[in-house]
Amino acid sequence: MSEKEQNQENISNEESIKDQVEEILDEAIEEADSKDAAGDKSSSGNEQPDEKEQLKADLEKEKDKFLRLFAEFENYKRRTSKERVEMFKTASQDVIVSMLPVLDDFDRALGELKKAKDKELLKGVELISNKFRSTLRSKGLEEIEVKEGDTFDAEVHEAITQIPAPKDKLKGKIVDVVETGYKLGDRIIRYPKVVTGK
């Protein structure tokens, strides 16, 4: 059984328990009402209605307390399951971050093999590289797309140096990408290292 199916089953079980408790409380209220109605007919004392109202108020108070406690428990469960999912994401983050230098090595190797004349070797390394990249992509890794001429954004890019812009249109823009950046889900795990023009 998958975790999602198990969570749905747990939720339906808890809703069933909640409904049963509410039914028991409602039955107790009705039973107290019927006993008080029968007691009112047989006795004519003034204390009976006050006692009945007190019992009803106590029962309503306990029902309210139970419902609040149940809602609090539901919120706790949602919060802990969300934290568990986040923990799994960050656990895989450490492994993926340690694999990024291997991706960089593949990029450098492919660059050098393209200069060589051995096309079969290039094809083999490309296949391995693509398989490795697709495996990491399936785990949520995304490359941050940066190219020459993009506007520099300090929240997304890491500038390692600034050089005189080779063209006027590259002033204040990205001139070169030194190291590729990556995101895991919505979180940036490595900022792209860029050279900007001044």
UniProtKB/TrEMBL annotation:
Keywords tagged on the record: Chaperone, Cytoplasm, Stress response
InterPro entries: GrpE, GrpE_CC, GrpE_head
Ranges of Basic and acidic residues composition bias in the record: 49-58
GO BP term, pick one: protein folding
Compartmental location: Cytoplasm
Matches recorded under CDD domains: GrpE
Record field: compositional bias (Acidic residues): 22-31
SUPFAM superfamilies, per the entry: Coiled-coil domain of nucleotide exchange factor GrpE, Head domain of nucleotide exchange factor GrpE
Pfam families assigned: GrpE
Key word Nucleotide-binding present: no
Keyword Metal-binding among record annotations: no
One function term, GO molecular function aspect: unfolded protein binding
Positions of region (Disordered): 1-58
One cellular-component annotation, GO: cytoplasm
Chief localisation class: cytoplasm
Primary role: Participates actively in the response to hyperosmotic and heat shock by preventing the aggregation of stress-denatured proteins, in association with DnaK and GrpE. It is the nucleotide exchange factor for DnaK and may function as a thermosensor. Unfolded proteins bind initially to DnaJ; upon interaction with the DnaJ-bound protein, DnaK hydrolyzes its bound ATP, resulting in the formation of a stable complex. GrpE releases ADP from DnaK; ATP binding to DnaK triggers the release of the substrate protein, thus completing the reaction cycle.
Family affiliation: Belongs to the GrpE family.
Assembly and interaction partners: Homodimer.
Protein name as it appears in the record: Protein GrpE
Organism: Salinimicrobium sediminis
